Design the sequence.
């Protein structure tokens, strides 16, 4: 199972991205929650409230998921991370079923 994370400007943006990805069967689910972020951007230290979204998908869908995120995201440079995760076989089967049915 692949986990993709991205920070979004707000919950509405995260919900929009998740809805499109779910509708196109590119992810099995998305979890989102508020976070406080501190980062360097254009030479300055910035602080902001963002929404972190964690999505479950398959390796075959990663390229398409990234493409949709870049199309819908409001940031100049959305930070997308991708990790290969181990999970219970039942969870991995569910992710496969949701995406491929």
Sequence:
């Amino acid at each position: 199972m692949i986990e993709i994370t991205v920070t979004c400007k707000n919950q509405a943006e995260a919900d929009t991205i998740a809805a499109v990805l779910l509708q196109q069967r590119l992810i099995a689910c998305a979890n989102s929650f508020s976070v406080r972020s501190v980062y360097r951007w254009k030479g300055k230290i910035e602080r902001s409230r963002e929404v972190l979204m964690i999505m479950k998908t398959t390796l075959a869908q990663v390229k398409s998921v990234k493409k949709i995120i870049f199309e819908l995201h409001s940031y100049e440079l959305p930070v997308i991370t991708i990790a290969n995760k181990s999970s219970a076989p039942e969870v991995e089967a569910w992710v496969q079923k949701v995406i491929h049915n």
